[in-house]
Amino acid sequence: MKPYEKPYFQFPVFSDKVLVFNRDISSDLFAFIEDKFDGGKGYFVEGLPSKEELMKQYWESMNTLDEFLNPSLLITLKFIFLKQFQQC
User: Fold this and answer.
1) pTM for this predicted structure
2) Residue 59 contacts residue 20 (beta carbons within 8 Å)
3) Organism's domain of life (predicted)?
4) DSSP letter at 10?
5) For residue range 7-29, what is the model confidence (pLDDT) as tens digits?
6) For residues 65 and 13, is the Cβ–Cβ distance under 8 A?
């Protein structure tokens, strides 16, 4: 890894198996872990969907790095998937 302009790191992509997930959903899921260590008082998870619902949303938000970097590709792929799903 090498330093990048801001406090980021840049690294070479040597695999097509790099996955990207929704950051907001990931943070909400982490709130359940924080709540556990806070004694389960519910301060961190108040108003959040259930853990099960968040896990479902988390996996649905999964994209490959190529899809994430090229949103038009992602829209095309989702359209193709939905079209095939409707034909079943």
Assistant:
1) 0.60
2) no
3) Bacteria
4) E
5) 555 566 677 778 889 889 998 99
6) yes
